[in-house]
Design brief:
Length: about 100
């Protein structure tokens, strides 16, 4: 489990990411952000998969953004590309918990 605090970024500063070994459960404890959600197959690889960090970075033209607030949480599986940390009405502070679940 990771707890992080950061200021959200503009949309053009955030890339999609995807994992192979872990699913992410993401919960915004305070603040709000937008998270882009998309099928992994429709993305262009920007940085190839790094097995040590379990992450690949991707780009896409389509954006299905969902609002992440303390009222909801998100689960991202290895076939999901996600783009967390995007501003939702200005660059503001967020505190978020991310739980990594190993997928075997």
């Amino acid at each position: 489990m990771n707890i992080s605090e950061y200021v959200t970024k503009n949309e053009d500063e955030v890339q999609y990411e995807a994992h192979r070994q872990y699913a992410d459960i993401q919960y915004v404890v305070s603040g709000q952000e937008r998270i882009g959600v998309a099928e992994l197959g429709s993305k262009t690889i920007v940085a190839p998969y790094d097995s040590d960090k379990d992450v690949a970075f991707l780009a896409a033209d389509d954006n299905d953004f969902q609002r992440a607030t303390p009222e909801n949480f998100f689960i991202f599986f290895p076939n999901d590309a996600h783009r967390p940390g995007v501003e939702a009405g200005g660059n503001k502070s967020v505190r978020k918990v991310v739980v990594k679940l190993r997928i075997d």
